[in-house]
Amino acid sequence: SAVISQKPSRDICQRGTSLTIQCQVDSQVTMMFWYRQQPGQSLTLIATANQGSEATYESGFVIDKFPISRPNLTFSTLTVSNMSPEDSSIYLCSVKLAGGPLGELFFGEGSRLTVL
Amino acid sequence: GDSVTQMEGPVTLSEEAFLTINCTYTATGYPSLFWYVQYPGEGLQLLLKATKADDKGSNKGFEATYRKETTSFHLEKGSVQVSDSAVYFCALSGGSQGNLIFGKGTKLSVKP
């Protein structure tokens, strides 16, 4: 297994501001993902964080709104830019471990953002 | 594209009742199937998984069988406890990036 540390765990933000979420993993990982869980909804993949290059975004998500960095194998950040109340969600970091079980992902505890 | 359909919640049961949460999927190829659980105030954690047809995943008294003919992976438990109260997510490994695709989640509340 892995210990995935996400910061902040929760925050209350003002409309129009930006917030950066950090994800640190204590194990070697091959893939890192960022998901969004809107209130009462399922998890939706935002993007795959690629080490040393631009993230791969899913349909409906763009780099200007959700810039992502992954400077090394075990650390990534997600920024939610120019926030609006619709961005109020839980943002989850998820990883696939090097040599880990087929298809299995591990998740951080999430960052709960409330935008006023 | 690949997708997961899960029964709508919330589900409320009395302690020791039998639980079934239905999950069906649409996928090209042969994905692995998973049930994840999210306890109140905690992160998502893997409950059980099955990697090929007819496999049965089991953990903590929960079971699910990978049924290729009905494209299903229903979660069952013979006798639920109050501590099983959580949100349960069915998922498959089908994303182009190696990510998981999730159902909408089913909230289970177990009353004493």
Overview of this protein structure:
The complex is a heterodimer of chains A (116) and B (112). Chain A is mostly beta strands. Chain A contains no helices and eleven strands. Helices cover 0% and strands 52% of the residues of chain A. In chain A, the strands form two sheets. In chain A, strands 2, 4, 5, 6, 9, 10 and 11 form a seven-stranded mixed beta sheet that branches. In chain A, a hairpin with an 8-residue loop joins strand 9 and strand 10. The termini of chain A are far apart. The model of chain A has no long low-confidence stretch (mean pLDDT 93). With 112 residues, chain B is mainly β. In chain B, 0% of the residues lie in helices and 50% in strands. Chain B contains no helices and twelve strands. Chain B has strands spanning 3-6, 11-14, 19-21, 23-26, 33-38, 44-50, 56-59, 62-65, 75-77, 86-93, 100-102, 106-111. In chain B, the strands form three sheets. In chain B, strands 2, 5, 6, 10, 11 and 12 form a six-stranded mixed beta sheet that branches. In chain B, strands 3-9-8-7 form a four-stranded antiparallel beta sheet, with no helix packed on it. In chain B, strands 1-4 form a two-stranded antiparallel ribbon. The termini of chain B are far apart. Chain A binds chain B through residues 4, 31, 33, 41-43, 45, 48, 56, 92, 94, 96, 101-110, and chain B through 31-32, 34, 36, 42-46, 49, 51, 89, 93, 95, 97-105.
